[in-house]
């Protein structure tokens, strides 16, 4: 049976050029030699995640976003509106590598919601992308369906409130995407504690509302496939096995339920690096990526890794 999956991509740091349900790109809000203005992006990217909304200095919960590189808030909003008029979905991504987003209590949850509402309503974003890395943690032996950890509970409550507020303000549903690292999602097969499997309660809580989940198939150690084989990152076997786990579900022995139910293939994407920078692991050739995606979609044979 043919599967429908999506492609996740960074414009400058990671990306792939494949025709799938969506081609998702992360646009960077910082300068440097690789800076690309929002009005210069490749039109193939139909979902654009603005990166990133981050906590104000000294906070882990009061979120802010300030356009860089000569853009004012009003000029940046106009560029967003131009993209949206051309049919693009434009979201604000929360977190990013090295950014700590933690909601310790209900007060911090409410400040988070208020600051995100201000951002969403001013810029007119279509929704949010959860790209929190290293800030979520779960307790071994606890439930995926009924989490006990405050940082997870308050984030779930916050997203639910944002959905309600967004619908009331814009009269439409808010786009919801997630970009977990492999440890945060499929890593739950090895261990359900700390960061390992920490996205699973979020994914479970919003499985009916999620538009896309695109695991970061890079910067990862080796991971087990459903059959127990250990695959190294940067190979077709790794990409295929981890995306299959997200679709078919996988055992989570450290969780109370003992397993995680898979998601519809239409909600699962693939996050990959486009450039073979030294700071990234998991880069794959265009040919290997295309062959892997074609196999997952049922339109090609399983690729064979040639040493």
Helix and strand content put the structural class at alpha/beta
Q: Count the strands? A: 13
Into which percent range does the helicity of residues fall?
25-40%
Largest sheet geometry? 9 strands, mixed
Write a brief caption for the model.
This protein has six helices and 13 strands. It is α/β, with parallel strands linked by helices. Helix 2 (106-123) packs parallel to helix 3 (150-170) and helix 5 packs parallel to helix 6 (286-296).
Which properties best describe this structure?
alpha/beta, 6 helices, 307 residues, two-stranded antiparallel ribbon
Could you walk me through the main structural features you see in this protein, from its secondary elements to its overall organization?
27% of the residues lie in helices and 18% in strands. It is α/β, with parallel strands linked by helices and 307 residues long. The strands form three sheets. Strands 1, 2, 3, 4, 5, 6, 7, 8 and 13 form a nine-stranded mixed sheet that branches. Strands 9-10 form a two-stranded antiparallel ribbon. The chain has a two-stranded antiparallel sheet with strand order 11-12. The model is unreliable at 10-20 (pLDDT under 50). β3 and β4 (63-64) form a beta hairpin.
